Amino acid sequence: MSQISRIRGTNDFLYNDSRKLRYIEEILHKKSRIYNFEQIRLPIFEYTDLFQRGIGEETDIVSKEMFTFTDRGNRSITLRPEGTAGTVRAAIENSLLNERSINKIYYIGSMYRAERPQKGRYREFNQYGIECIGSDSPHTDAEIIALNLDILKTLSSNLNCEALSILNLEINTVGCEKCKPKYNDALSKQLASQKDKLCTVCQNRYDKNILRILDCKNEGCISILENVVKMYDYACDECKAHFNILCDALNKMNIDFNINPKLVRGLDYYTKTAFEIKSNYLGTQSALAGGGRYDNLIGIFNNGKQVPAVGSAMGIERLLIILEDSNFDNTIKNSIDIFVVLFKETSNVGIEIINKLRQKNVSVESDFNIRSIKSQFKTADKYNAKYALILGPDEVLDNKATIRDMNTGDETKVSFETLESVILSKLK
Ligand code: HAM
Questions:
Q1: Does the C-beta of 60 come closer than 6 Å to ligand 1?
Q2: What is d(CA 342, CA 64) in angstroms, rounded to the nearest whole number?
Q3: Domain, as residue range, for 380
């Protein structure tokens, strides 16, 4: 029978990786609280319509990367490719927008995109997303960026990861419904004579979603776009002011940034601010986090009632790739307090002692298969046990046991009556 393997583009997070994820998640929760974001947990699948209308029919995500299927009731369902559309749906459906004027939300969870898998690009991946719904202030955009960078800085210093300290924050304005059409028009006019020199994907984008041409990685397209018109020059006064205040706020917070006039994002809902945090360490999939403002998205699902919002998402697998070059493994090394070395005759007494210690929150392991003493000590080492508690048959008859310090090899004999208190004081 052939072996069953995991689906291409998915990952198994085994012991060590799972510990790393937990470490990262603890920081994500902690930092989110500091900035007063509250966690939500949403369904992994939604009606397809949510993403089609939210992210945009012409985006790569919706047009070719969604895992969509028809359920038994003949409804079209899609595994969420991102978290913003679902968050907006949930905020409206659960009346969050009526209860608070500003909702600061975060989520950690798996997303699904049928992309060609490669390092840093998977079909199932995890995102840490933050969304601030209800504020139109550029200072909120700055706060979103600051939270992302704060998390990355903390991880970099806790885990001694230099790669994570060298990041590039790129920002841009993509305009609003008033000025975006003027810019699209100018771009279209400028590129008209060279349309047939663009790659086939961009020729299609030219007609359907011209802004996305700016994001093309094809060398021919990059050279055609070298002196392309800039959005900022076509932005309305409101968008210009918003962008200028954002730049000012970042400067005030001592956050370095580069303005990249060609930064457009892969989702259609953005207005005004767009940003990405990039790392050279990631190669072609250089974006570690990305986001921006989406002042028109909520209106689509809210009977036209617009509510301004801004947010971002960070790719957790990409974070793990950068953290490969750090002392993460040492930081998260698992260890147990006590390994109890048992003999056939003493396992009955052993289970009683083990249980009592665990009730006192001491982490204890043993080998009930009772292999040789040598292999039991090897196992104790494998689990990085701080102490071994040896329950030899003669000692047990005497109501005693031996505690061995696994670091120094020092041994002490202890009576059963004082065992618990001696162990607890050693572990203090
Ligand atoms: P996004 O740029 O599509 O934005 O994704 C955000 C991050 O998720 C990326 O920067 C990357 O680190 C990670 N990512 C995306 N696709 C993959 C993949 N196939 N494999 C591994 N990692 C991936 C959004 O999803 C928006 N919802 C962000 C947002 C929130 N904008 C406003 N609010």
A1: no
A2: 59
A3: 335-426
